Amino acid sequence: MENNEISTIEKNVVVTLEYSLEVNGQEIDNGPIQFIQGHGNIIQGLEVEVEGMKLGEEKEVLVKAENAYGSYDPEMEFDVSLSSFPEDFEIKLGQPMRIQDGEGHIFTGVAVAITDESVKLNLNHPLAGKDLLFKTKVTELRPATEEEIERGQLAHSCSGCSSGDCGDC
C-alpha cells in the first residue's frame, strides 16, 4: 500500500500527531508524537478519539482521568524508612525518582514528605486524577511495517511510557 493511499487514522497506521497538552488550563507538554494506532501506544482515551481523523485534521480532545492515567489512589502513598535508602541516595521533595524494592522491582515515585526516620512516597502517576485536554493535528500517516505490527510498537519506541521523550524509560 502506498503512503499516499493512507488518509485516515485506523488500526495499524503509523500516526504522527502534533499536540499540546493542557491540564487545568495550563500547557504542560507539546510536540509531535508518533505511534501505531490500535496497539495501545498512547493513552486509551486519546487513541479512541483520534480513530478516523484525516491527514491534516485538527481536533480538541478532552480525555477524562479514568481514560488517561486513572483516579488518584491514596493507597499509593506510603512511608518508607530512611534506612531503606543507600546513604548516598539524594531524596528531593516533589521530584520524581527511580527506586527499587527488595525484590528488584523498579518504580518511579515522588517524595512528598521527609522526617528524620522516613520518607512518604507517592507512586501515583503525576497525571492520575486529572482530565487532559489535547489539541491535536494529524501531520503524517503511513502503513506500519509487518515488523512494527508484530512488535506492536515502532522500532524506536520504548515500552513503559507514552511520551516521545523516552530518556527516562
Q: State the major sheet.
A: 4 strands, antiparallel
What is the CA-CA span between the terminal residues? 33 Å
CATH architecture type of the largest domain? Roll
Major beta sheet, strand line-up: 2-1-8-3
Number of strands: 8
* The CATH class of the largest domain: Alpha Beta
* Overall 3D form: elongated
The helix/strand series, from N terminus to C terminus, equals EEHEEEEEEH
Tally of separate helices: 2
Number of separate structural domains: 2
**Mean pLDDT, all residues:** 89
Topology, element by element:
Blueprint: E1 13-23, E2 26-36, H1 44-50, E3 58-63, E4 77-81, E5 96-100, E6 106-114, E7 118-122, E8 132-143, H2 146-151
Antiparallel strand pairs: 1-2, 1-8, 3-8, 4-7, 5-6, 6-7
What keywords describe this structure?
169 residues; mainly beta; Chitinase A, domain 3; four-stranded antiparallel beta sheet; Thrombin, subunit H; 8% helix; 2 domains; disordered C terminus
Quick overview:
With 169 residues, this protein is mainly beta. It has helices spanning 44-50, 146-151; strands at residues 13-23, 26-36, 58-63, 77-81, 96-100, 106-114, 118-122, 132-143.
Overview of the structural elements:
The structure is a single chain. Helix content is 8%, strand content 38%. By secondary structure, it is mostly beta strands. It folds into two domains: 3-70 and 127-151, Chitinase A, domain 3 (Roll), CATH 3.10.50; 74-122, Thrombin, subunit H, CATH 2.40.10. The longest helix has 7 residues, at 44-50. The two termini are 33 Å apart.
